[in-house]
Amino acid sequence: MPSALTDDHVTTGYDDDGTGPALVLIHGHPFDRTMWQPQRDAFTATHRVITPDLRGYGATTVVPGITPLSRFAADIEALLDHLGVDRFVLGGLSMGGQIAMECYRAFPDRIRGLILADTSPAAETPDGKAARVATADRLLAEGMRGYADEVLDRMVAPYNTHAAPHVHRMMLATSPEGAAAALRGRAERPDYRDLLTRVTVPALVVVGRDDTYTPVAEAEAMHAALPDSTLVVVDGAAHLPNLERPKEFNTALAAFLSSLDSPGSPTRSS
């Protein structure tokens, strides 16, 4: 597995395979880059697919404390500079989607298309901040197992037993220090709702029909705010449709990527 150094000497693990237009996919919490394996399998024949481990996750250096979304975004930019990738389609799921929004805020001219899956653009509420900090404290005190056991049926719908073992393994393998730092950073995240109204590239919004973390209504609101977007609701999935229903997710992603090569084609649909 290749790696790259950030400006603060964090080693970033990543996969980089395939040829063609660059497609960068950012994983969610508390996972790692292997959550994108079905998309890597499907798209490396047509695209250069880059999937990093975020700091604190997978093979990337764990940095205790607080990791704001802006730091994650800077890490993504540093990796792409290292790889010599100037323009790319950027996608993220859940926390990864929020990082993708932060990337668009920080370096919009490099992004030619945006994929926002099962995510939310709103700033955290006071109750949400308290809950994230409390969860961070719990992970540091208890480790990942209790948390992973409790949230598994919300991450993956209980009827999707094929996806649950991989998701559970990723959660158990995550560093409590890295996950806690990300939770504390997300508690202080900015509000991206106004930013979405100013996005000038096509966007794909995807959500699992049974997602309770980021319900369909939130995806519909993002779709309404984005000037040029496609909304896809994946039936038979909860918070991780790319793993729960990879065929349906990949079909939506393939259509979106194809539309980017047809500038005259309308992309706004539901």
Automatic annotation (TrEMBL):
Hydrolase recorded as keyword: yes
Alphabetic keyword roster: Hydrolase
GO annotations of cellular component type: membrane
Domain AB hydrolase-1, chain residue ranges per copy: 23-250
Lineage top rank: taxon: Bacteria
InterPro entries on file: AB_hydrolase_1, AB_hydrolase_fold, AB_hydrolase_sf
GO MF entries: hydrolase activity
Pfam families given in the database record: Abhydrolase_6
Transmembrane feature ranges: none
Claim: Transmembrane is one of the keywords in the record: no
Protein name (Swiss-Prot/TrEMBL): Alpha/beta hydrolase
Organism annotation: Streptomyces purpureus
Organism phylogeny: Bacteria, Bacillati, Actinomycetota, Actinomycetes, Kitasatosporales
